[in-house]
Amino acid sequence: MKIVLIDVTRGAPLRGILSAFIDLSPDPQGLGAKIAESIGGEKGDSAVHISDGGERGRGWGQGQEQGDPIQGDPADAPVPLPEARGIPYLGKRGREIAASVFRTLSAKEGEKAESVISNRELVGILGVAKAIEELGLADARFYTTAVGAALTSAGRCGDRAAGGEEGGVLEMFKATGTPALFRPSPTGTTQASIALIYALTAGKDDPPPLRIERVGRWTADGGGVQVILGEGVIEGASDEIAVIETNVDDLDGETLGWIAERLRRVVEEVSLIPYISKKGRPGFTIRAVATREQAEGAMEAILAESGSLGLKVFRCQRVAVEREECVRTVRVGRHDYDVRVKVSKRYGRVKPEFEDCKRIAVQEGLTFREVAELVRRQLAEQ
């Protein structure tokens, strides 16, 4: 699994993000030219275009004023957002990225999209989407660092001052949940660049272990962006989960059973773990494993049902080894049964579905253990 970490701790100007992705290519000149040709052909008479100043050493586009690959006048003129599905030079993934950015900008406090996008920003968003497709990263998993943002000054490209009339970057951070790192000077982070980071990463800032393959860089006075490409050390899908737990020593078995039953409806896993409390009384740790979307509901359920005055919440990465699910036929007694199985692609292990083994055990009058061992043995021989 390809992993991409976007390092924007020193700010997230769109020109920097685009330059870093282009610099990630083994042939940045060729990629930059292809993106420029695509966007130039689509926008035709646009006053904004992508060009490279030719100074390769500090990152693609560094020959331009302030390291800006997006050039033209008037670069900051407001423009209407196009329909993402109607952009001919973007494939499926590129259109998904563009559409997500446009939705985030349009939905923010009911603003009209035209009021928060500039010609320069539009070119930057479409350029990054095209770069990701050309680099073969359509199926990669993207992560971000905390995004550097200015405390007071308004930057370029449609940025608004914090606390201004329309809320500015602070409101965009709040709306998307993207992690922020506030800095004392302007960084170029804008509402559009936050929306782009969110479209790529969904705010995920805890990448799994990876072996670094290439790094794309853009640098400028007071700022810089890095795009780090690597291969995940453990193959498989990964996502962020929350482990939520609390300790109780004053609940009876019926109440604990009800809490576990309620939690199973809204989270991935539930555990009741016995322990000895600080006063020597036997108690239980109530532990729930929840996705990002489930976490708030799980915390509310535990606090409401247990009477606990606090919780521990651990954010961590879950890695699921790649597997395939299929149906195999096994013979138990005189009958053939279809059994759902999961097969680990990495280790070749086979695990039959519990409910299917239980059904066979009931029908054949055998113990669950006998059926499970018989099924595993036959699956290993197939």
How many strands?
15
* Multimeric organization: single chain
Please work out how many helical segments DSSP would assign.
Answer: 10
Q: Report strand %.
A: 25-35%
User: Which strands sit side by side, in order, in the main sheet?
Assistant: 4-1-8-7
Q: Biggest β-sheet: count, sense, barrel?
A: 4 strands, mixed
Mean pLDDT: 80
Poorly predicted ranges (pLDDT <50, ≥5 residues)?
A: 41-48, 53-66, 111-115, 153-167
Kindly, what is the distance between the CA atoms of the first and last residues, rounded to a whole number of angstroms?
29 Å
Q: What letter string, H or E per element, gives the SSE order?
A: EHHEEHHEEHEHEEEHEEHEEEEHH
What fraction, in percent, of the residue positions are helical? 25-40%
Q: Per the principal axes of the C-alpha atoms, what is the gross shape?
A: globular
Indicate the structural class.
Answer: alpha+beta
Number of domains: 3
Report the radius of gyration as a whole number of Å. 26 Å
Q: Summed up, what is this model?
A:
This protein is of the alpha+beta class and 382 residues long.
Q: What is the secondary structure topology, with strand pairs?
A:
Blueprint: E1 2-7, H1 14-23, H2 28-43, E2 48-50, E3 70-72, H3 92-107, H4 119-134, E4 141-144, E5 147-150, H5 168-176, E6 180-183, H6 191-201, E7 210-220, E8 223-232, E9 236-248, H7 253-264, E10 269-276, E11 282-291, H8 295-306, E12 312-321, E13 323-332, E14 335-344, E15 350-352, H9 354-364, H10 368-381
Parallel strand pairs: 1-4, 5-6
Antiparallel strand pairs: 1-8, 2-3, 7-8, 9-11, 9-12, 10-11, 13-14, 14-15
Helix pairs in contact: 1-4, 2-4, 3-4, 3-6, 5-6, 7-8, 9-10
